[in-house]
Specification:
The complex is a heterodimer of chains A (about 80) and B (about 700). Chain A is mainly α and about 80 residues long. With about 700 residues, chain B is an alpha+beta fold. In chain B, helix 16 crosses helix 17. The radius of gyration of chain B is 50 Å and the shape is elongated. The two termini of chain B are about 25 Å apart. The chains are: A mainly alpha (about 80), B alpha+beta (about 700).
Chain lengths: ~80, ~700
């Protein structure tokens, strides 16, 4: 149930026009959040990570950890997107 | 939750155990005012009110208390038997009341007890958790409703968020938005930090950054203004909605006040015309003389006699004296003559000329004895004026004075006779005005009672606050419109500022291109775009949810208003999270529904909410309404119940419809009408057990009867 909701959220966010215009966010061959997390597309991976991790109130440490992971992944991989 | 039975024991007017078997579809509970309908509704609400911890005396059946001996106790209990997720459950909520040997009542705290029956055995479960799972407080808020006014719960602020939180699979974006706000700020700082350290184009970078900071400050101010204006819209909407709920009360109050003003004015006018200061009239208007007529007549009689005797005596004296030429007091036929001056000389001259005696009406032709008599009388009178009076027989003229007074008073006789009539008229007039004033007083009292009844429907309000609301409403509409216009203006300005911000950020990115800052900038841009994507997703989710609710509501509306004009329900989110519910026609024109159509419109939305609960959370939940059709005509009601009976939902309706008034608050069921309904569900009649003493609560007991149909 939770996976379904997470996929629903992922799909909903990635339908965004601006994201689609600027990044590769096609997930037609992805069926789970964990798959999305490792699909090799930085934006999809970032959104999947956020959807998977933000269910409870993140404490500050967890919040910072999550941010660092997302930021570093984007920083290291977005140049290739462009 | 699919209810199978509700039992009420010793709760308010329900003495001992009273059980309602509840149909899968519609269950009707019919009772006139004061027979236990509201107590049934209260029992249901009390059953779920887990925030109330202690039993209260006013919830206990007075009849049960009246027969409770010392040293004994009773149970006050409401219980539900229901199915949930293929199991049967029994839950009771109860407290005990004991009477000690000092006749004092001891009331316990409230407890729950719950059992699960899995078909093999019964075992206890946690009642509160069970009820929360199968019929939680959010859905209950939209499922247990008292009267048509309660339907307006859907218009309360934050309804949309509440509905989404409870019935959308994607409940809350709050934590995502918070995290992304944090991430966006952090990534911005990181990018700026690296970019500012890059010596090349440092000045240009700093200038761009300064412009960005200025734009951000303006954005922050505008966002605060936007928030304030949105709050104004919410507040005015709430006030207007509150007013809408009180609309009937306000109109009634206005009407009552106008009537009172008119009545009081008329009363004042009628009262001011009353002149009942009779003690003054007694002397000033000579009312004291009204009883004088018989006295006056007596006086006249006596004076007449005295005068006659006097004249007779004087005439005899003068005859004896042999007074020459003064035969003025000739006896007439041996009787005392009239005084010389009666009739007057003028009258005598007239009678002689006209040759008729105008005292007796007999003709007196010239030369006749009658004519000569009159001539002699005139001559005697004229002589008396010229000749020296001989010594008079009577030294004093008291009787002549009395005579004169009597003559004057007789002339006033008409006035005195008229006095009685005048007094009668004045008293009648005053009495009529007093009766008028009494009538106005009665009407004023009735209107003041109506005013009290209206205020009783609107707790906390006074007549003045209701009337002020009426006068304030146009201000509220205007202020709300102004706030809405300001919102549009601010949003436009924000759009422009955000466009400028994007432009400056683009410039900043270009400045940092081909430098170590590039990657940081790209990462920050990506995070910002993801942040926006989540915000947009939230709005889309909300729109989709409302659209879905809208579609389901319209399906129900079509069912509820079959063969009748229904319009189309249009749901949207208003400012402040209010769920705006409107009725439009095919062309999109807003319709102002009558009360009955408004009720079915709201009910269709509530059915849709209940449907969502079932679809999304897998929970069936009943709908319990107290008097939802009080504004319907009887024909419309019958249609409504027939349709409700076919809707695939468990609905319990408590109503005073389907009763015939026999007079003297005596109601009987309209069996014909009920039979014509042909509904499948169960029907109960609740009424007070007779006889009862309407001044003694302990004689009041609601009894329930299942009606075969």
């Amino acid at each position: 149930m939770r996976q379904n909701r997470q996929m629903e959220m992922l799909n909903l966010v990635l339908q965004d026009e601006l994201l689609r215009k600027n990044y590769d966010v096609d997930i037609s061959d992805i069926s789970s959040i964990d798959q999305a997390r490792l699909c090799g597309k930085p934006i999809v991976e970032a959104v999947a990570l956020i959807v998977r991790e933000i269910n409870d109130i993140p404490n500050d440490e967890k919040k910072s950890e999550l941010y660092n992971e997302i930021f570093n992944n984007l920083k290291n991989n977005l140049l290739n997107e462009d | 939750m699919k209810i199978k039975k509700i039992s009420i024991e010793n709760f308010r007017s329900y003495y001992r155990i009273n059980t309602f078997a509840i149909s899968d579809g519609l269950t009707l509970i019919i009772g006139a005012n004061g027979e236990g309908k509201t107590n049934f509704y209260r029992a249901v609400v009390w059953f779920f009110a887990d925030n109330i911890k202690m039993g209260k005396e006013h919830d206990v059946s007075r009849k049960a208390l009246s027969v409770l001996p010392e040293g004994s106790s009773i149970k006050v209990c409401v219980s539900f038997t229901f199915d949930h997720n293929e199991f049967e459950y029994y839950v009771e909520r109860y407290f005990t009341v004991s009477r000690d040997f000092d006749n004092k009542l001891i009331i316990s705290k409230i407890e729950y007890k719950a059992n699960k029956n899995d078909g093999v055995q019964c075992y206890p479960v946690d009642a509160i958790r069970l009820l929360d799972n199968c019929f939680n407080s959010s859905i209950r808020n939209y499922s247990i409703l008292a009267g048509e006014e309660d339907l307006h719960k859907l218009n309360e602020p934050d309804t949309v968020s509440l509905l989404i939180r409870n019935f959308s699979s994607l409940k809350s974006f709050e934590y995502y938005n918070k995290f992304l706000e944090f991430a966006s700020t952090q990534s911005q700082k990181a990018a700026d930090n690296v970019a500012s350290k890059n010596a090349k184009n440092k000045k240009q970078f700093e200038r761009t950054q300064a412009r960005i900071d200025s734009i951000n400050r303006n954005i922050a101010i505008l966002e605060q203004d936007l928030k304030d204006e949105k709050k104004k819209v919410t507040d005015y909407t709430t006030q207007i909605n509150n007013l809408a709920e009180k609309k009937d009360a306000i109109e009634l109050m206005k009407d009552i006040r106008e009537k009172l003003e008119t009545l009081k004015k008329k009363r004042l006018e009628a009262n001011s015309r009353i002149r009942d200061n009779y003690s003054i009239k007694l002397l000033d208007d000579l009312w004291i003389l009204c009883g004088m007529k018989p006295i006056l007549e007596k006086f006249s009689e006596k004076v007449g006699k005295f005068s006659k005797d006097r004249r007779k005596a004087e005439s005899t004296y003068q005859r004896e004296q042999g007074a020459r030429g003064l035969q003025k007091l000739q006896l007439v036929g041996g009787k005392a003559p009239l005084p010389l001056y009666t009739p007057s000389s003028k009258d005598l001259k007239e009678m002689l000329k006209d040759e008729i005696c105008k005292v007796c009406g007999r003709p007196a032709p010239k030369g006749s004895p009658e004519w000569h008599y009159m001539e002699d009388k005139l001559n005697l009178y004229l002589e008396s004026l010229n000749i020296k009076e001989p010594e008079e027989f009577f030294k004093h003229h008291y009787i002549q004075e009395l005579d004169k007074r009597e003559t004057i008073l007789n002339n006033e006789m008409a006035f005195i006779t008229g006095l009685n009539e005048e007094i009668k008229n004045v008293i009648e007039f005053n009495d009529a005005r007093k009766a008028e004033v009494a009538k106005y007083d009665k009407n004023i009292e009735a209107e003041e009672e109506n005013e009290r009844k209206v205020l009783a429907q609107v707790p906390g309000a006074t007549a003045q606050t209701l009337l002020n609301s009426y006068t304030n409403i146009s201000n509220w509409f205007e202020n709300r419109s102004n706030a809405e216009r300001n919102i549009i203006r601010i949003e436009r300005e924000l759009e422009q500022l955000n466009a400028q911000l994007d432009e400056q950020n683009e410039i900043k990115s270009k400045i940092a291109k081909d430098s170590p800052a590039t990657m940081y900038i790209l990462a920050h841009q990506a995070i910002s775009r993801i942040k926006e994507a989540f915000k947009n997703a939230e709005n889309r989710n909300k729109r989709d949810f409302i659209e879905h609710l809208n579609a389901v509501a319209n399906e129900y509306l079509a069912k509820l208003n079959i063969d009748d004009f229904k319009g189309i329900v249009r749901l949207s989110e208003g400012i402040g999270g209010i769920l705006s519910i409107r009725l439009i026609d095919e062309k999109g024109i807003i319709i102002e529904p009558n009360k009955a159509l408004e009720t079915t419109m709201y009910m269709s939305v509530l059915f849709a909410v209940s449907q969502l609960n079932e679809d999304k959370l897998g929970n069936e939940s009943p709908l319990i309404f107290d008097a939802p059709t009080s504004s319907f005509t009887s024909g419309k009601e019958d249609d409504f119940y027939r349709v409700i009976d076919k809707v695939d939902k468990q609905i319990i309706i408590v109503t005073k419809s389907f009763l015939k008034d026999q007079g003297n608050n005596n109601y009987i069921l309209d069996i014909d009408r009920i039979n014509k309904l042909k509904i499948k569900g169960d029907i109960y009649r609740i009424e007070k057990l007779k006889p009862f003493n309407d001044k003694e609560l302990s004689t009041i007991q609601t009894i329930i009867t299942k009606i075969p149909h």
